[in-house]
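hiii so um. not sure if this is the right channel but i have a protein structure encoded as C-alpha cells and i wanna go backwards to a sequence. like what aa goes where. can anyone help
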C-alpha cells in the first residue's frame, strides 16, 4: 500500500496537512506529516545553521529511519525545493513526486530564483538570536496564503512561525540530475498562482505525468482538503 510523506511550505508545519492526512488515513494509508527543523513544533531548535540542506536531510532521514520506499512525496510551496532535493539524494525511496502549488526548481536555483515575488517580504525580516527570519505571521502572510475565511484564519494564524531566510536563499545543486528529471511527477496548481507565474518558466508547471488545477488560494491543502486528498488518492490507485 502506498505511503504518503507530505512536506509543508515556508512558515508552516506538519499541522497544515491535518485535514488531508485525516482523509488519507481514513482510506487506510500510512501518512507522515513532519515539521521541518526550526518550524512549528520544532521551532525550539531554531539555529543559524538551518538551511535548505537541513530540510532536505530532515526528509531523507525520515525515509531511511522509517524504512519507507515507493513513497508518494508531496511538497507544498517552498516544500517543492525540499522534495526535489530529496529525490536527488534518495531517488530509490521515492515512487512519485507531487508538486502542490509548489516551487519546481532547476539545477542551481534557489527559491528566490523560482519565486522572486517573495523578495517583497524581505524588508520585514528580523534577526532573532543570530537567525535571519522571514514570513512573520500577520495579516500580510495569511493573505499571501489565500486564507480569507475568518474561522480558518483564526485556526491557522497562531500556528504559523517565521522561517529561516537562509532556506530561501540557498541554491539547490543536483548530484543526480537524471534521477530528478526521470522521477514520475504530478503537478497540482492553484488557478490564482498560475495567473502570476512567469510565462518564460510556465512549462515547469504544465509538464508532468498528470497536471491538475484547483481554483483556490495558495494553501489549497487547507482551503480544499477534500479535493487535494481525492487527487492524491488517485495516485495510489
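sure thing!! here u go:
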Amino acid at each position: 500500500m502506498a505511503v504518503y510523506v507530505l512536506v509543508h511550505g515556508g512558515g508552516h508545519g506538519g499541522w497544515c496537512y491535518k485535514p488531508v492526512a485525516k482523509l488519507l488515513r481514513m482510506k487506510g494509508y500510512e501518512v507522515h506529516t513532519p515539521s521541518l527543523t526550526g518550524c512549528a513544533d520544532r521551532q525550539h531548535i531554531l539555529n543559524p545553521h538551518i538551511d535548505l540542506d537541513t530540510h532536505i536531510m530532515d526528509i531523507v532521514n525520515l525515509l531511511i529511519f522509517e524504512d519507507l520506499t515507493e513513497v508518494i512525496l508531496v511538497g507544498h510551496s517552498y516544500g517543492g525545493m525540499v522534495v526535489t532535493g530529496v529525490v536527488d539524494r534518495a531517488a530509490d525511496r521515492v515512487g512519485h513526486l507531487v508538486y502542490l502549488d509548489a516551487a519546481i526548481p532547476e539545477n542551481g536555483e534557489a527559491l528566490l530564483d523560482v519565486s522572486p515575488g517573495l523578495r517583497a517580504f524581505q524588508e520585514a525580516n528580523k534577526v532573532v538570536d543570530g537567525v535571519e527570519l522571514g514570513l512573520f505571521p500577520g495579516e500580510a502572510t495569511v493573505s499571501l496564503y489565500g486564507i480569507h475565511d475568518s474561522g480558518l484564519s483564526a485556526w491557522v494564524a497562531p500556528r504559523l512561525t517565521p522561517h529561516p531566510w537562509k532556506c530561501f536563499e540557498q541554491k539547490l545543486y543536483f548530484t543526480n540530475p537524471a534521477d530528478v528529471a526521470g522521477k514520475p511527477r504530478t503537478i497540482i496548481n492553484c488557478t490564482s498562482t498560475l495567473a502570476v507565474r512567469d510565462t518564460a518558466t510556465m512549462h515547469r508547471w504544465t509538464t508532468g505525468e498528470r497536471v491538475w488545477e484547483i481554483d483556490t488560494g495558495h494553501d489549497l491543502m487547507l482551503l480544499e482538503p477534500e479535493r487535494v486528498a481525492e487527487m492524491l488518492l488517485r495516485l495510489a490507485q
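oh and The longest strand covers residues 94-100.
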